[in-house]
Amino acid sequence: MTVGRILATKGHDVVTIEPQRSVADGAALLARKGIGAIVVTDPEGRVRGIFSERDLVRLLAAKGAVALQEPISDWMTQDVVTTCARASVHSLMEQMTTGRFRHLPVLEDDKLVGIVSIGDVVKQRLAEMEQEQQALREYIATA
């Protein structure tokens, strides 16, 4: 199973925000879209960072509500770990577990083509396990 297959099921839409937008704008976007992370992109669409619910909580704990007016670029995670459509779901799970993050932007030729969350990975893995169980049941029934 690959990241590309997950994207084929869930779609390639990615919510993005510009680095100069405020943290308040980012928080509102997270809430409005019901998502856990926003990819921060420059005018050319290149990934410059990622801003997650976790980043928002850290900011509020450190500076309080006054920091909501600061640029999102001041609080985004700048060293973004990414993946590609050819990557296996197994390697994706390892990356997410090791790095302790829940969202991975998907790049192809340095272009943002999707984002995969831990929820997407779990959903895909459960579907695989159900298919395997069904195949075993059918095998046993015909044996």
Describe it:
- With 143 residues, this protein is α+β, with helices and mostly antiparallel strands.
- It is built from five helices and five strands.
- The chain has a three-stranded mixed sheet. Strands 4-5 form a two-stranded antiparallel sheet.
- A hairpin with a 2-residue loop joins strand 4 and strand 5.
- The chain is elongated.
Task: Describe how the helices and strands are arranged.
Blueprint: H1 3-10, E1 16-17, H2 23-33, E2 37-41, E3 47-52, H3 53-63, H4 89-99, E4 103-108, E5 111-117, H5 118-142
Parallel strand pairs: 1-2
Antiparallel strand pairs: 2-3, 4-5
Number of strands: 5
Helix percent band: 40-55%
- Measured between the Cα atoms of the first and last residue, the distance is 28 Å
Radius of gyration: 18 Å
Characterize the quaternary organization of these chains. Answer: single chain
Number of helices: 5
Q: What is the arithmetic mean of pLDDT? A: 92
Name the shape in a single word. Answer: elongated
CATH architecture grouping: Roll
Order of helices and strands: HEHEEHHEEH
Instruction: Supply the CATH class.
Output: Alpha Beta
The domain tally reads 1
SS content category: alpha+beta
CATH superfamily: CBS-domain
Task: Note the main sheet.
Answer: 3 strands, mixed
User: What strand order characterises the main sheet?
Assistant: 1-2-3
CATH topology group: CBS-domain
